[in-house]
Amino acid sequence: MNTVQAIIFDLSGTVIDFGSRGPVVAFVELCRRHGIKATEAQARGPMGSHKWDHIWAMLNEPEIHAQWIALKGQPPTAADVDAIYPEFTAVQIATLANHVEVLPGVKELVEELVRRKIRYATTTGFDSGMLGPVKASTAAGGFTPEIFMTPDLVGTGRPAPWMIYHAAKHMGLYPLHTFIKVGDTPIDIAEAKAAGAWAVSIVATGNEIGLSQEALAALSTEDREQRFQTAYAKFKSLGADYIIDSVADLPSVIDHINHRLSNGERP
Fold this sequence. Notes:
The protein is an alpha/beta fold. Helix content is about 50%, strand content about 10%. It has helices at about 20-35, 40-45, 50-60, 60-70, 80-95, 105-115, 130-140, 150-155, 160-170, 185-195, 215-220, 220-235, 250-260, and strands spanning about 5-10, 120-125, 150, 180-185, 200, 240-245. The chain has a 6-stranded parallel beta sheet with strand order 3-2-1-4-5-6, sandwiched between helices. Helix 1 (about 20-35) packs across helix 5 and helix 3 packs across helix 5. It is globular and about 60 Å long.
C-alpha cells in the first residue's frame, strides 16, 4: 500500500500524437463542414473531455456560438450535438489514422514499468468506437494497456472519476492513492483529484504547447522557454502534483511518490 501500483495514462499528447494534433484537426474540420470557422485555440480549450462534451463546449464558445446562431437562427441544443456526433465520430476516426504515432520514450517507459511490476491502463475523451487506429498503433509501438477506458463504457467522461475507478476494478487494484494519473490537460488533473490519485501533467508533447515535434524544435530558445513557463504555471495553479516534459521523465516521479507514500503522504 506504500508504493505505486498503477499508472493511468491519457492518450493524445501523452503517449501518442505529439502536440495532440489529431483531435484539433477533427474539431476544426467538423466546424468547417457546418459553415463555422473555428481556430485551433478554440478547439483546444475543452481538450480531454468526452468528445460530446467537447463539441457542446465549442458550440457555446462566444464566437462560435454567434456563428451558429447566424447560420441556424437559434442557439445550439443538446439535440444538435446528438445529430452531428456520428459525423464527428467518422471525422475523428479518419483523422486519427494520421495522428497515432507512439511518442518518443514510451516504449522504454513501458519496459521500466514492467520491470518494476507497475501496471497501466488508459482513460480518454475518445469513445470506444474511435479507438481502432489508436489500438493498432500503440500495440505496434509497445504500449499495451490492460484496458482502454472510454466515457461510453462508464456513462460519462472527465472530470468524473468513474473511468479511473473502472480501470482500477478491472485490474483488481486499490487504494487509489497508489495510482498516478498522467495527462496533458487541466481536466486530466481534475480527474486525478476526483479519483484520489496523484496528478502528473505533461508539457512538451501535449495540448498546452500544441506543436509537432518539428515545430517545437524550430522555436527560438526564448520562445520555447516562455511557452513552457506559461504551461508549468497553469498546471501548478490547477493543483498538479508533478509537471514533466514527457512520459520519459516519469520514472523519477514514481521514485519520489514512493518516498512520499512511505512517509504516509497522500495525494
